[in-house]
Amino acid sequence: MAHVLENFDKWKEFLGNRVEAAQSAGMNTDKIADVAYQIGGFLSDKVDPKNSQERLLKQMWEVSSPEDRHALARTMVNLVSRDH
């Protein structure tokens, strides 16, 4: 996972593949966004940003309310889903 986090495009590809797999397994978009929210919290708390995009996401996450964090998570899911 650390290698994936070093490059934002690799991270988007990794996340996009996981979203696609979850959709193929029958998981709905709301559940996927909920999992993305949980992952976002974990990454913000436990992983140092490896690039400027991740630093920006971490800063946005840290200043956001829980409702806004859910919106950020849904936005990331939408972003990577668009690319697949």
UniProtKB/TrEMBL annotation:
This is DUF3243 domain-containing protein. It holds the Pfam family DUF3243. It comes from the Bacteria. InterPro entries: DUF3243 (IPR021637), Uncharacterised_YmfJ (IPR024702), YmfJ/YflH_sf (IPR038292). It comes from Fodinisporobacter ferrooxydans.
